[in-house]
Amino acid sequence: MSDDQLKTVFTSFCAFGAGSKDAQATMDNAKFGKLFRDLKLYDKKFTSTDTDIIFSRPEVKSKTERKITFEQFKKALALCAEKKYGSKDEVGKLIEKICAGKGPGTSGATKQSKTGGVDRMTDTSQYTGSHKERFDEGGKGKGLEGRKDFDAQAAEGYVGGYKGKDTYSDKKH
Q1: Which of 44, 138, 142, 162 could form a disulfide with 146 if both were Cys (CB 3.0 to 4.6 A apart)?
Q2: pLDDT in tens, 5-41
Q3: Backbone angles phi, psi at 135, to 5 degrees
Q4: Cα 34 to chain center, whole Å?
Q5: Distance from C-alpha of 109 to C-alpha of 130, rounded to nearest angstrom
Q6: Using CA atoms, how far apart are residues 117 and 164, in angstroms rounded to an integer?
């Protein structure tokens, strides 16, 4: 596999989650682990703990660095191949699997519901009770006016529908 293909995969994982202006050619530990997780390279012998340890080793980067470059990434892959296959010479096998895989995925992300009940929940024409008052005939929300009770009795401290206003006697028995 060519260095260009590996660099393409490296940059796609570096750019994952960053805005277009924030995209850099360096990879942090979380994206390094995501690469191995998304490409299903973990097994019983090679785990996410191993990639965390390898990412922090002095052969890969100094203690003060938080991200690695492409050259440091290739050094880390040699250490990963040694852990996974028993020899640094097997790095080509690991690189081949990385280049054959897809780019970063969004597994576990929240997806839009496809069930039929959602349409009824968002149809304002079917609302009843106090919720019905919050929308006009076109289904557009009335805003604050639709949420507040501007009844005169409510402003004076009485609950809605109370018929005995001003009937309380001030006489002491």
Answers
A1: 142
A2: 888 888 888 887 776 555 578 888 888 888 888 888 8
A3: -130, 150
A4: 13
A5: 35
A6: 43
